[in-house]
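Q: Okay, next protein. This is Fe2OG dioxygenase domain-containing protein from Streptomyces musisoli. I've checked the sequence twice, so it should be correct. Can you predict the 3D structure?
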Amino acid sequence: MITELPLLTAEGTEDVRTRVYALREHWITRGGEPPAFLTLGTPSYLDVAERPESGHYERHGVAARSLLLAHFQDLYDLIGETLTEHLDAPVHYPDHLALPGFHIWLEAAIFTRPQAPVHFDLQYQAFDWPPGTDTDRLLSFTLPLRVPAAGGGLNLWEVTYRDFRRSLARGWVESAADLQRFHTKRYVPYTPGRLYVHSGHVLHQVAPSSSVRAGDERLTLQGHGVRCADHWLLYW
């Protein structure tokens, strides 16, 4: 249910991290005080969900696009080449959707208990897709650039969104989180520089770290994809 692909060397990973930090003035604070959970880019799960009718996502996604392309065009090209080979189909970054962007957890935001939401990636439901789009063929991907010293990764349960809808209709569960009771959790540790790809419709959760040390951070690039005719559309 998840695939790990080589993408960046250790030197390449550190280079991308350095470029993210060079754009620190463009980071957006997403949590409370202290401001330790931030993003670089425009995540639909936050900027559509919080302002669904305002056009905030579209405006900020377009505004951030030129900045991200100016500093990470080579990275987007490499991700595109890697996913094209993996998926055996071309990929595109549509102009009207936000580019894949960065999650930044600084030390104060890194959690040691499983407090992140257990969820499916349903961001695609907020958008109108062109004819030929198959919203049953999805992907989500993560490129870790830095994880805490004690490790970081993803919790997965071998259950799909279709399974959840079936269980919900039968009254067996009330929320996606209820599925944890019936399925075994799998922990996938992240290695910086590797690209982790899954359908987005598998139940998952940002995994906690076992401990947090001074100076720890969790830095990842995130993105999603939808199959449209003979190609994939990538966004955040």
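A: Here is a summary of the prediction. Residues 56-87 form the longest helix (32 residues). The chain has a mean pLDDT of 94.
Q: Noted. On to the next one.
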